[in-house]
Amino acid sequence: MVKLLYCWLCQMEIPMLEDHEASDVLEKGRDRERILKRYCEVTGFEETNSNAVWHHVVSLYGAPCSSCGKPLRTPRARICAACGTQVAR
Predict the structure, then answer these.
(1) pLDDT of 45-68, one tens digit each?
(2) Residues 6+ apart with CB under 8 A from 43
(3) Within 13 A of 35's CA, how many CA atoms are on the CB side?
(4) Residue 31 and residue 52: Cα distance in Å, rounded?
(5) CB neighbour list of residue 21: distance below 8 Å, 6 or more residues apart
(6) Alpha carbon distance 89, 62 (integer Å)
(7) What does the alpha-carbon distance between residue 42 and residue 86 come to, in Å, rounded to a whole number?
(8) 3-class DSSP state for residue 79?
(9) Rounded distance between C-alpha atoms, residue 16 and residue 3, angstroms
(10) Crossing angle (nearest 10°) for helices 19-26 and 32-43
(11) In the structure, what pLDDT confidence band is assigned to residue 1 with cuts at 50, 70 and 90?
(12) For the chain, what is the radius of gyration of the CA atoms?
């Protein structure tokens, strides 16, 4: 099942790839068309920028913020970039 997460670069919710899906999609190397086609097959979302697919991977993001629910920008983030809430460690 595809996971929708807020993408900080795209500034919208985007279907994200799990690591094993990313390996499959991005193994197409630098062939822009093949990356976009495979991403659409996996997620059902027609991305137009093949470079964006590289940051549409769940493991690159942190847990959801306990206050606003947006994902932390990285798994190691200590503060939510969206609302400023400090992450308890």
Answers:
(1) 999 999 999 999 999 999 999 999
(2) 2, 15, 17
(3) 20
(4) 14
(5) 42
(6) 13
(7) 34
(8) strand
(9) 6
(10) 150
(11) confident
(12) 14
pTM (whole model) above 0.85:
yes
Encoding tokens for residue 86? 């400090």
Determine which of 25-29, 34-38, 78-82 has the lowest per-residue pLDDT on average: 25-29
**One-letter amino acid of 7:** C
What tokens does 7 get?
């993408």
Q: Which residue has the tokens 């942190």?
A: 62
What is the token pair recorded at 82?
């969206």
Q: What is the residue whose two structure tokens read 């992450």? A: 87
